[in-house]
Records
---
Amino acid sequence: MIETEEPEVLRVEAPEQAIVTARRVRKVYRSGTEVEALRGVDFEVGRGEMVAVVGPSGSGKTTLLNCLSGLERIDGGQILVDGSDLEKLSDNARTGYRARHMGFVFQAFNLLPVLTAVENVEIPLLLLGQRPRPAREQAMAMLETLGLADRAKHRPDMLSGGEQQRVAVARALVHQPAIVWADEPTGNLDTEGTEVVVELLVRLNKEGQTMVLVTHNPAVAGRAQRTVRMRDGRIEAPPQPARSAAPTS
Amino acid sequence: MKGLLLFGGLFAVAYAVLIVIALRHPLFARIAIREATRRPWQSALVVAGLMIGSGAILVSEVIQNSADDSLTAGAFQSWGHVDLTVSAPDNGYFDPRVAQTLANDPQLRHSAAAVQAGVEMLGSVADLDRGSSNAFVRVIGFDPATQAAFGRFHQLDGTETSGEALGAGRVFIGQSLATAIGARVGDRLRISIGQSTGDPKSGDVVVAGVLTAAGPGSYGLRPAVFAPLQTMAGLIGTHQINILRIGAPGDGQAELDAGHRLVPIVTAALTRLPEASQLQVREGKADDITAARQQQDPGNATGGFTSILSLIVLLAGLVLVVNLMATLVEERRPRLAVLRALGLSRLGLIAALSTEGALYSLVAAVLGVVPGLVVSWVLVASTVKGTGGRGGAGAGIAIGRDLPVQLSVRPSALALAIVAGAAVTLAAVVLAAVLRSDMTIAAAIRDLPEPTNVSRGSLALRLRYIGLAVASLFALVIPSPPFPEPLRLVGGTGLIAFAALTVRGRIPDRARLTSTGLALAAWALTSLAVAFLTSTSQSAGVDLFLAIPVTALGLSLAAVSNVRVFERAASVVGNASGRLRATLRLALAYLVRRPVRASLTVGTMAMVLSVIVIYNILIAEFTNQTRQSDARAPYDISVFMPAQRSMVLPATLQAQVATSLSIPTRSYLGPVQVSSPVGTPALWHQERMSLYEVTPALVSSPPMGRDMTNRVPQFPNDAAAWRSVQNDPGWVFWTRFNTDVRLTFVGPQGLVTRSVAGDFGDPILDGIVGSPQALAPFGNLPLGTTVLIKAKPGVDPHLLSAQLRQALLPAGAEVTAIADLLRQRGVAFENFASVPILFMRMGMVIGILSLAILAFRAVVQRRRAIGVLRALGYRRGEVVAGIVTETTLTTTVGVLVGIVTGLAAGYIYLNGTTSISPFGLDLASLAGTLALIYAAVLLTTFGPALAAAHIPPAQALRLQE
């Protein structure tokens, strides 16, 4: 079901070390009245960087993340992810690109309720066409890494919120994506759960994983290497130049 | 069989593809099975709704098969082992030695099983001991010496005989005649056999036995007397015969095939006999069976119309299936969006969803045959009483015969129901999956409504729109036969849909959907009106099939988009309306949130109800006609004497008669071809007809008054139709009038074709009414008379009828009070209407089920929302009231739309087909139906609503997928 060949994509020269480059991105919602959710946003994410996007409700954080990840189409501007112009890709090609190069962590966990933890984690691998047995082994290994091996056979309704989100993180990472998008990853968690998940994300970033996370929580944002503040569909502070964030350990 | 092959092929291909997908992507199969088993009750509910598909298909098939098989069995039964007949074109006598010569023909002796000399006449029978009579009896002369080869007669007392022991003047009678006149063994019968001159040949015989309707005793399946040729000669005054019966070897289809092979052999044998050169060979049995197998239903004036309305009910069932699957897909939307975000392609999503749908479809299709069988049994059992009567519900082939309809469940019907039900349901799943797979993933993950984008969609989408517009324009502007009007309707509908899609996002949705809905309804009704004015009835029938759903769905869309007016209405209640408004607002919000889906639900109910309303109009029209007939009937008594050209009354009775009208009447029993619409190929079948001759007295004082009930639209008024029938031998009136009918008979000089100009709702003259010139080719048929009598004031017509019956008994006259004839017509109509009414009830069940299932699913899906409402301060009663209000509103909108659609389509139908019929509504019956619908809907919704209201708010709020 996934495009197995690398899709033909338009390569545009991106700044060195930048894995994500957004230029003058516009997004308009029209439902009776027109709402411009993104008003010409310029944004970059460096390879291996962990960027937190913060801002008040309705400022366009989630819309930016959805547009950058290709979950939503944009109405103007350009988004390059690792040199690929997502907007120029067909739906199938974009889907394939997402499957290979991206991972997602949602606020509401969004695990499939009918599948066990390990079955949820192996979904991206199966969608990429991997054989069931190695996929299962890889998913189990990922759960072990995250300390969830003993919960592998449990369904989501039998896990705590923190455990569910850790399973979601495992699902986002199992296929070793180039970038992980996390939308309020701790929004549904208590303090202890938040701490566990944030520590996990920071650790993974230190291991080289590029991450962009949207959050309301200043403590979570504070753990990122860079924070971008949004208001009324614009980024408040001028974008900082992308810098290398190679693993420090 | 073609349907089975088609759907079987689709089923096999679809499920094979899904199995391959499931094997290649075990994830899909795993998710499908887990989803199906996670909430067994919810899955059971989905399956219950989907069972409508195979159930409705099975009912439709079984009813069709039962009718086909019963007619076919009846045709086999009525001919027994008689496969071919040989007779003169004018039914004249010929030498009985022809039979012997044929029997001795070397080729025939080798190929045929039996040859019998016989006589077949039409006559009347009076039971002199019981004082009863029957005016339309088949008098059958048989040769006991050769009878055994055709089978032995089965008597009511259990014995069997070939009739060798029958003495002179002794006869058998069929069971139906015995029942009709109350005859018993030993009774004296007077048989009057009509002659073309009108001077009957009569004779008295004694009943030696009553034959059951089995074996040769069922010959013709009509009231009959079986007399040995010796006795027959005494009755007709000659030892000559007028028919040869030839039997082929074998049984059933093999016998039929052998009979067909015999035709050239018999023809060749006849050409070798100079005295038999005028004789013709007929395959009457094969003709009847072919007509029965092809369900030729010429006598049933509204058979095609009923089929169309039944198809609409079936369509309503399919809409329910689509609606249910759309709900299922909607429920899965957030989970599917997650998979899309993780990299599942659109095609993969469709495949995943279809895999789950395939499970439901298969289980539902298999289980659906159970309710399908139960409903079929009820429908067929109700149909039995509707056959065999005078002008009754049976097909033309069956009229006047003792032909019960038996339940016929063919394995092919079961197989078709399962494969077609599963295939159609699966198609609905795939359609719903395709439509919903085009989702905004970010919104779908959080279960938010689809955002409206500024961009006008992808190139592929635009190309699809352009394709729709071009195809619609083509259908609209360049219509091609055979159905130009339906094509135009479809074309216009497509263009309206295109316009609605094009302006999406540019104008407010409410205005867009309202105008789209109204435009669809207006276009469909206009097309229907034009179709009935300008086209053949067949084309107009297709238009009716399309116009009702389009109108119902269009009006539903417009109504649902504006349903908030109810809220405004609630606001006028005043100060006390605060909570009421809050309750109502919620119900309305859910209703208008997805107007297209809601209009599908409303449209399902509306479609079924519109069909009910149309039947209601037909019933009201008939009742109206009957009332008018009763009021305007200028005569009190009908006397039919099939063998006498005149009636002589004793002076005492003559004194009680105010006026009378004599109509020369000939009796036809033979091959008839009914082509409707004119030009449509039709099959031959045996049928009984009375042929009434138009006389100046009949023109000046028709039995039911001058006003006609139905008339071919080409005649601007009744007078024009009368003039044509009087002056043009090509035109006749026919009691069983349908639009656009041409009749073909076999006359002595060849085929006789007559066009039907109309009828005047006349149960008194049951047959063809034509000018002397129009009936001239039938001069060889027995001439009788029909006398209509008006009693003097103060004379009781029933008493006078009884006295006339007594006085005219020896002549075999059938005397009937016209009030009784009108009542019989009412009963016949009720019998006829019982079948479609049962179909409508099935439709009602579909409509109610659709609302109940959706209400139940809504309750299940909204448990979290209900928890929020309860936390916000909604009382339990208000939660229940909100849910019940939502369903009641849906029902009410469906009812209103259904009534409007039914009234509009019914009005157009009646005006288009009859031009002159009065238009009315049986309000009492409609009110009863509506009460039943509301009661059922409330009953089915109240339980789930109550259960939802009792969920503790905290528990409901914790609910999450």
---
Amino acid sequence: MQCPKCHAAMHTYNRNGVQIEQCSGCRGIFLDYGELESLTRLEAQWGQQAPPPPAAPGGYPPQAAPAPAWGAPHGGGHHGGHGGHHRQKGFGRMLFSS
Amino acid sequence: MTTSATGTSGTGPSVVRALTAAARHAAHPGAGHPPVAPPVLCDACGRDETVLADRPDATVVRHESAVAKAHAPATDPAGHRARLAVAAHPLLTGILLPPLPVPTPQVSGRPVTAWPYGVPVDPDRPDEAPWEEAATLLARLHAVPPAALAPLAVPPTRGPLKAAQALSRMRAAGRHPAGADVERAWAGLPAWARGEAPAPEGGSLCHGDLHLGQLVRHPVPDGPWLLIDVDDLGLGDAAWDLARPAAWYAAGLLAPDEWQRFLGAYRSAGGSAVPPDGDPWPRLDIPARVLTVQTAALAVAKSAEQGRDLDEVEATMIESCARIATLITELATGPSS
């Protein structure tokens, strides 16, 4: 699936049991019919259980660290394998040079 | 384990000889060293030297408990003296490694400095990198009031200029398929961030070149971590000191938990570059884009100069540039829906 705004590839993530598509380019999020309601319902349930945590600015899920609009997709297991791979290659060298 | 000081290339023997003398003097103060001509061993301890680095911009020789460094030939002498004096200033105790005296402060037009030897971060163990300590040291550095350093005239930082130099080096290395993405990301940055217009005022004491090679434990082997390298020390916007880790995080090289440890420690230590809570990216976005482009440009330049392909990590920085360029195009043309 391609992002309707920037035409980069969109990847599927599972957030609290709801499948969402997020653009790998602009990080915009596409929700299918009913998914916004599902998220709203989950949010309401969460609100009844405990005081809500401070909202992460930029509309990202509360557990994710804020990232810039041009950031690589992190977490959700999507790039997990990649991360480990980078570390075995030039990862160290990159972190040690000007 | 040691590389003989005579076995170097790239630097004239006079530079290594002067560094050897400076390092021996710093390691054995008061021993009184006659002029040395390697491979003559040190008359105080009978040992020789290790060349830790030999690049056009820096040559570093270690002798026992001390290292001596020849700085870049183009180093501005007045700015260098001010930066060195900052490192020696009592307000920087526990933040920056202080220098040791040198017998001759210059060789072949290059400033020479001497420092205690400290244990660096192990490049083979990036998972053990001291992110919290690095962040805390930066927060403390940024909290040093510049007025308290008077009468030292600390020069301004040169973040945009260094990035522009990286672009020049990439262009000089010849055409490269990855160059287009780097150029597009660069072209979309504000003129001030490219060094083509005055930057907004920033009055914090900054390190100017933070990476994991800029931390050592002193005293050896398990003293506290300290920042080293005064070559880019200056007054500027403190957010630029966080920009390289921010760029690694945005590229996917630094895991979210590592970035959060770094950022969280910086905030806990009262760091002034970002608000104490909430989204730090409004402050980090531009400098992190600049450092992304700078890192990518240097990667392209080095791979071209060395006649090799980009490695996977370098390619990741090019991908970051492509995303930055896409975003710029989108902002320029407006949303399509």
